[in-house]
Structures are given as structure tokens and as C-alpha cells.
Amino acid sequence: MTDCALILVAAGRGERARGKVPKQYKLLRGQPLLAHTLKHAADTQIFSRTVLVVAAGDRQAGDLAPEAVIVTGGATRTASVRAGLDALSDDPPDIVMIHDAARPFIDATLVRPLLDALRTHDGAVPALPIVDALKTDGFDAVDRNVLHRVQTPQAFRYGPIKAAFDALPLDVAAHDDIAVARDAGLSLAFTPGSDRNFKVTWPEDFAKAEAMLRAPTLTVTGSGFDVHKLAESDDPLWLCGVEVESRYTLVGHSDADVGLHAITDAILGAVAQGDIGDHFPPDDPQWKGAASDRFLQHAIHLAQDQGATLRHVDLTIICERPKVKPYREAMRARVAEITGLPFARVSIKATTTETLGFTGRREGIAAQALATLEVPE
């Protein structure tokens, strides 16, 4: 396997980003930008070691990259890269890639073509085509087909690029590493760049990076259905966590709230966690007469443990009696309170079966629910 080392240049101050701290330490989703770059580089599973080049006196880098070799950079990027190359000289790798710490979205699809190019060239750089028309100050057209937007990591066979930097006068600040390689006569190649691999430079770039770092999600839907028998009783009748005035009650081991039971099963179904009976067996005495909001809260916590977020609930209550409409808004409010959903994302409807079946004969109440959740992809 090719020994490929990574030099991460993180010695700049990031003044254009206008922050109180250097931009590589500004937080993105609770972690410094540099931490995301390190993680994504590690996820490629290509680099055997990492050299992290930081500013003098920088004490944060070691905590973020305990396995990296930490070296102090210079006043220019060229000086910092030289320090990184020198740090590898005692045990030189076959290949070295030099990457800006402020490009957090490095990935294997970007890096592997660079490795392939180094089979026939001394160096390679990812590049993107120019898509906009180009003009000079005098409005003369510039042929965009001969221009490229170059990115990092810039990849090299270690021996030739180390020799090129060693031959470079110490007071020279090159535009980038490819410029040093070109002036030294090394053979170079372009590989495909990536729009994701942008350099965080301006304050607005942090919002873009923040959005890109959000975990991809899927929208899933679960369905639930429940039935309970109606019986004449002085006991309360509970629907969707609301006590409904009636000379009937619903018969069940718990409070038999058919609406909350259906919503609970819908959420459990969306995250493939069985049904309400798996979690609250009807023969378990501890659930005798239990309020069904406990069941619904349990289902929500199970979903949250899997990284899922409840987004919407739609419930249909099927019965001839009692009349649901007078209680519907209170039911929506109670379900919103239990689930944490906005009121507008709780839908409760009622219908009859036109006197057909057990609900039509007023023997029971049925409910069916749909729950929409976002889950990690």
C-alpha cells in the first residue's frame, strides 16, 4: 500500500473571515472548522499520517489532532508548507498531499484521482472549469477554456516536491505548491475538483458550510391503528388526552385512549420499534389504568434515541359517538403538548362508518394515525 501523508496548513489568521479567533477554530455545528477537516480527511482512509502546521503559540491543535505531528509554520504559506515537508524528512512517505485546513469537505472521490495521476506525474491538483465569461479591465474577452480554478489537496511524489522546496530561496513566497513544482520542472496533471471542496474564506461561507454539515435525512411515515370497546360507565372517556363528557367509557387495560394509542403505534412503526403491546404488555399490572400519554412519550423518546424527529401527526377517529368536533381543538392542543409538535402540525379528524360495522353499531371506537418523521439517512 502506498504511504501517503497529509500536510494540513492551519497557520493562517483568517482575517477575511472577520472573527475573534482564527477561522480554523471558529465553531461549525459545535466543533471547530479544523475538526471537521480532520474528520473528513480521516474518513477517506487514505492518509497514513498527518502533519498539522499551526501558528506559533497555538495550543488548540494538539487537542483536536492528538495523533498528528504538530509543527510551527512560518510567516507565509510557502514557509508553512516547507515546515510540513521538513517534518516528514526523517521517514519520508511515497506521496504527500498538501491541503488547506479551511477546506473541510475533502473526501475520497476528490483524493483518489490524485493518487491515480501520480502514477504518471510528479504532481497533481484538483481543478474546476470556469463557467462564467471572463473580461479584462478593458472588456477584452479571455478564453476561459485555458483557465482553471485550482483547489487543494495538491498532491506530489514526496522526493521531487521536497527537492523543489529545498531549492527555493527562503524569502520567496510562491502562489501555491503547484507553482513551486512547475518552476522546478516537475510533471503535473489536473484532476477533477469538487464544488463541495470550497475554501471557507468570508463570513457568509460559514453559513454555507453549516448547512452542508447537517446530516442527510430521510422522511419516513408510520401508520397506527387501534380499537377499543365502548361500555356504559361513570368512568371518564379519554380521547387524545382529553376527557370527553359521555355516559360511556373505553374498555382497556390502560385508560384505553384509542387516539393516543394509534399515534403511538404510528411513531413506533416509523422507526421500526414494534407496537405498543411490545412495550406495554396488556397483561402487565403496572399499566392497569395508566394514562396513555406515557406510552406516546415513550415512543417519542425511542425515536429521538435513533436520531429521528417527529414532524407531523394525522389522526382519524372513527365512531358514531361521542361527537368529536366540540373537543377537536383541545385534542390537537393536547397532542401538540405531549409530542412537542407545533399546533399546526397536528391534524385530528373524525368520521363515521354510516352505521356499518361495530363502530356503526356504537360498540366501539377505532382510530388510525399517520406519523411523519425525519430520520438519519
Task: Describe the fold and architecture.
The protein has helices at 33-43, 61-64, 77-87, 108-117, 158-167, 177-183, 203-213, 258-270, 276-279, 293-305, 328-339, 357-360, and strands at residues 4-10, 27-28, 31-32, 49-54, 69-72, 95-100, 123-129, 134-135, 141-142, 148-150, 154-157, 188-192, 217-232, 237-239, 242-244, 248-251, 309-318, 346-351, 364-376. The relative contact order is 0.11. With 377 residues, it is of the alpha/beta class. It has two domains: 4-213, Spore Coat Polysaccharide Biosynthesis Protein SpsA, Chain A (Alpha-Beta Complex); 217-376, 2-C-methyl-D-erythritol 2,4-cyclodiphosphate synthase (60s Ribosomal Protein L30, Chain: A, 2-Layer Sandwich). Strands 1, 4, 5, 6, 7, 10, 11 and 12 form an eight-stranded mixed β-sheet that branches. The protein has a five-stranded mixed β-sheet with strand order 16-13-19-17-18.
In short:
Helices cover 29% and strands 28% of the residues.
Key phrases:
60s Ribosomal Protein L30, Chain: A, 19 strands, single chain, 5-stranded mixed beta sheet, 2 domains, alpha/beta, 12 helices, 8-stranded mixed beta sheet, Spore Coat Polysaccharide Biosynthesis Protein SpsA, Chain A, 377 residues
Question: How are the SSEs ordered, and which strands pair?
Answer:
Layout: E1 4-10, E2 27-28, E3 31-32, H1 33-43, E4 49-54, H2 61-64, E5 69-72, H3 77-87, E6 95-100, H4 108-117, E7 123-129, E8 134-135, E9 141-142, E10 148-150, E11 154-157, H5 158-167, H6 177-183, E12 188-192, H7 203-213, E13 217-232, E14 237-239, E15 242-244, E16 248-251, H8 258-270, H9 276-279, H10 293-305, E17 309-318, H11 328-339, E18 346-351, H12 357-360, E19 364-376
